[in-house]
Amino acid sequence: MDNISTLITKTNELTEALSLLCEHSVIAIDTEFIRESTYYSKLCLVQLAAGEHFFAIDPLADDIDLTALYEMLSNQDILKVFHAGRQDLEIFVHLTGNVPTPIFDTQIAAMVIGLGDQAGYDKLVQHYLKIEIDKSSRFTDWAARPLSERQLTYALDDVIYLAKIYPIIHDELSANNRLGWLNDEIHALTQIALYKPDPQEAWKKLKVRSHKPDFLNRLKFLAAWREERAISKNMPKNRIIRDETLVDLAGTNPKNPAKFQTIRGFPGGSTGKLVPEIIQTLAAAENSPRDSWPKIRGDYRRDKAPSATLELLRVLLKHITESHKIAPKLLASADDLEALARDDNADIKLLKGWRRELFGNTALQLKSGEIALTLNDSKVELIPNKKLNS
Questions:
Q1: Which H or E run includes 237?
Q2: Which member of 65, 94, 272, 326 has the lowest number of beta carbons within 10 Å of its beta carbon?
Q3: Which domain holds residue 155?
Q4: Do 185 and 246 fall into the same domain?
Q5: pTM
Q6: What is the mean pLDDT of residues 313-337?
Q7: Element (H, E) at 368
Q8: What average pLDDT does this structure show over 85-96?
């Protein structure tokens, strides 16, 4: 942009800016942050735009109180528009303890319209505004001060164009009667549990090969210990112990310092400062009640979806999503398709609401043989099963 708004560094400037923005019922929001050396993202810039107004707020300035910003985020009369807003929302939850509401996410909207599973912001700007945005400042150091004019231009463009895209994409969704299709995903984004780390669940994010209960239990305790330590010290988890090392510890189960010398990548070896804590954590895992140990379902590896059925459902999904111009990821996940291939009454979102109307009912008809898939001039078509209906 040719006209760069003044970077807001004082509380009174923020109050004046928000008084202008809050005259509008929709405000576009974006943030710039860094996370390389911390557990929680460090907020470095907040950009806001509504109508003809746009501002960049410097949360690192010495003389600024963000209370007015936080109040706006909780204002139920103002819709907050993000693009791929999960990380932005996580930052505000950490700072305020609440999820900003109500919200709208243009990346989710793009999925409903059929612009891809994870349409980038630059793709939306090009699609709706025919503008190529400058991405050269994407990986800049946002914590460094002073910010350059180029950095501010890049940051402000993110919300200036977002504010222009929102009414266009909203009208397109409304015209196609698809606004309601966003509800599940938007609702999921506003659940505070999504942004609150649960150390007891941290082990589920680790890649493992063994499903033995004793191994998984040790891993659960170790992952919880690492998560809690990372939170308390505001450090990245892998700066404490890397994932593969944590898995190795769970498998090796060292009971004395000498054993740590054989753990590849363990910081400090047998004399490492973390050795006593880990021995104590592993002992706690061993002494925990067996009925509390993680369990893998007995059918985890045996109950596979019928491969032919699954392949047909994948073809049907591709056909329907292309026909209705909607991202496949929004309609059905791989797990949804496998569950449906196994069970007509699976408790999945694919068999509920608009997804059932668009895909689920047709998928059940395909499974039961009421309809069939055929090729017509290299294009997939659905036809009644003549053998069944004759």
A1: helix 237-240
A2: 65
A3: 7-195
A4: no
A5: 0.90
A6: 94
A7: helix 361-368
A8: 97
